[in-house]
């Protein structure tokens, strides 16, 4: 039997997804910065006509970051680490290699069509699920192709133990498969009646039922793309980069199964104080608070993996990214359950505090984990040193500053909003009009936009560093084992 170290891994598919990660990261973040400045300076909405307004760009931003940047990073990680932890290589299994390439190109076609359709204003108006029904079918095809790669690779593995990262990938695949299909069940109106646009459809559900199914999916798009898939990445790359074993296997088991059983029922906390039955609202709140346990179990397990090795924070910018990613995961998974408590939600709902919560998780936890994963993979794919350690370090501090500016401004803005909306005078009348709150919030929107711009600057630094690593850095005779050797 061939040893793991003797295997010649095929990185062709993973490289393609790395390129996509960088491209979608730039586009998604750039759109986010544009719409942030549109919020701070509303006149910017009118400079590019209808196609440049907040309402057209916002779905492109969210879809670009969730299904572009994040999924590309996850799939780059899968096609890289899957071979390693299963002790296979795609050179030995041409079918799996073909499936991987078809998966990538079908995905790129899907994303191109998504950009065109969303720019054109074609949408089914569901949060994180805006694509029209023909593209929903293509989404299923892309997802099934990943499933074939995932389970097909496991079927031919040499390593009998399924590493924990793959548990999380399996959970991502299975959960999103069910959730996406049920949420997107619809009747294409043109095919039924012959009237209207070919792309129009009507949800199979109506009213409150539609809202419940939507947020069953919507929140779990976060749970199983932004959370379980990213946990799958960090459980591989943090131990590999630090050279340390995972702190506790038992804690890994507890956190995995706790997350799977609890997270999937938390979505109704998006519908507090709505027409959804009160018992379902309460269920969402309760499960959200319980969610602290498995979430923190995972984060603590990651941080304690560095036990006795904290000096690596000074030595390796990559460890900084991974440790701070885990820290932001702890912060975000405490903040979310707090916001789901009914008394807190009465203040926080529909405010910018929710926006702050989403982005400290996305920019800190998801963004930093994917960035660190790419920094780990590229030297091994191209057998070159990272181009510049100093640039990595500068990027880390610029992006950390950006995240702090972003979430702190949105926390303050959100709590200010909530308090002003609730304030009454001595006669019980509302003390402030809606425009009063908007006026007060404008400085915070400017700070948010500056924070987003700084994060984008950091991402451009990352992109430059990765490209120079691919084409100009010092070549290595063999892949580095643990911490990546870096040039000055």
UniProtKB/TrEMBL annotation:
Transmembrane intervals: 16-40, 60-81, 102-120, 132-151, 163-182, 215-238, 247-266, 286-306, 318-334, 354-375, 396-415, 453-473
Gene Ontology MF term list: cytochrome-c oxidase activity; heme binding; metal ion binding
Residues binding Cu cation: 219, 269-270
Binding-site residues, heme b 2; high-spin: 357
Co-factor: note: Binds 1 copper ion per subunit, denoted as copper B. Binds 2 heme groups per subunit, denoted as high- and low-spin.
Protein origin, superkingdom: Bacteria
Enzyme class: translocase
Reactions it catalyzes: 4 Fe(II)-[cytochrome c] + O2 + 8 H(+)(in) = 4 Fe(III)-[cytochrome c] + 2 H2O + 4 H(+)(out)
Topology in the lipid bilayer: Multi-pass membrane protein
Binding site for heme b 1; low-spin: 61, 359
Gene3D superfamilies listed in its UniProt record: Cytochrome c oxidase-like, subunit I domain
Primary location group: membrane
Keywords, ordered alphabetically: Cell membrane, Copper, Electron transport, Heme, Iron, Membrane, Metal-binding, Respiratory chain, Translocase, Transmembrane, Transmembrane helix, Transport
Residue ranges of domain Cytochrome oxidase subunit I profile in the record: 13-488
GO biological process entries: electron transport coupled proton transport; oxidative phosphorylation; respiratory electron transport chain
Family affiliation: Belongs to the heme-copper respiratory oxidase family.
UniProt cross-references to PANTHER family, sorted A to Z: CYTOCHROME C OXIDASE SUBUNIT 1, CYTOCHROME C OXIDASE SUBUNIT 1 HOMOLOG, BACTEROID
Full protein name: cytochrome-c oxidase
Chain's gene name: FIXN
């Amino acid at each position: 039997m061939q040893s793991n170290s003797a295997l010649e891994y095929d990185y062709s598919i993973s490289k393609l997804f790395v390129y996509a990660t960088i491209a979608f990261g730039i586009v998604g973040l750039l759109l986010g910065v544009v719409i942030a400045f549109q919020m701070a300076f509303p006149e910017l909405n009118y400079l590019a006509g209808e196609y440049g307004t907040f309402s057209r760009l916002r779905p492109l931003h969210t879809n670009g970051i969730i299904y572009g940047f994040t999924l590309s990073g996850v799939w780059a990680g899968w096609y890289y680490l899957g071979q390693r932890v299963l002790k296979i290589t795609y050179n030995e299994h041409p079918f799996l290699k073909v499936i991987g390439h078809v998966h990538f190109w079908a995905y790129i076609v899907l994303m191109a069509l998504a950009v065109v359709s969303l720019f054109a204003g074609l949408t089914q108006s569901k949060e994180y699920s805006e694509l029209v029904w023909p593209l929903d079918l293509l989404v299923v095809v892309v997802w099934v192709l990943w499933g074939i790669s995932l389970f097909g690779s496991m079927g031919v593995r040499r390593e009998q133990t399924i590493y924990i990262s793959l548990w999380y990938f399996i959970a991502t695949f299975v959960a999103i498969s069910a959730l996406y299909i049920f949420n997107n069940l619809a009747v294409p109106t043109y095919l039924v009646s012959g009237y209207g646009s070919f792309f129009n459809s009507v949800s199979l559900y109506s009213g409150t039922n539609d809202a419940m199914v939507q947020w069953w999916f919507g929140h779990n798009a976060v749970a199983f793309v932004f959370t379980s898939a990213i946990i799958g990445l960090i459980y591989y790359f943090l131990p590999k980069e630090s050279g340390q074993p995972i702190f506790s296997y038992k804690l890994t088991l507890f956190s995995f199964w706790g997350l799977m059983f609890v997270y999937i029922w938390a979505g109704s906390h998006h519908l507090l104080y709505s027409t959804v039955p009160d018992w379902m609202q309460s269920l969402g709140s309760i499960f959200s608070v319980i969610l602290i346990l498995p979430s923190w179990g995972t984060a603590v397990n990651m941080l304690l993996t560095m036990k006795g090795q904290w000096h690596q924070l000074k030595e390796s910018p990559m460890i900084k990214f991974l440790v701070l990613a885990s820290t932001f995961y702890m912060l975000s998974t405490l903040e979310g359950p707090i916001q789901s408590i009914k008394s807190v939600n009465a203040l926080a709902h529909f405010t910018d505090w929710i926006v702050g919560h989403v982005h400290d998780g996305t920019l800190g936890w998801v963004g930093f984990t994917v960035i660190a994963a790419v920094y780990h993979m590229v030297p091994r794919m191209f057998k070159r040193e990272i181009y510049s350690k100093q640039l990595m370090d500068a990027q880390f501090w610029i992006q950390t500053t950006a995240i702090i500016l972003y979430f702190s401004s949105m926390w303050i803005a959100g709590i200010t909003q909530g308090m002003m909306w609730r304030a009454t005078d001595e006669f019980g009348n509302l003390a402030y009009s809606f425009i009063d709150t908007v006026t007060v919030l404008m400085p915070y929107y400017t700070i948010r936009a500056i924070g987003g711009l700084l994060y984008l600057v950091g991402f451009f630094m990352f992109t430059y560093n990765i490209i120079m690593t691919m084409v100009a850095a010092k070549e290595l005779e063999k892949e580095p084992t643990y911490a990546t050797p870096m040039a000055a």
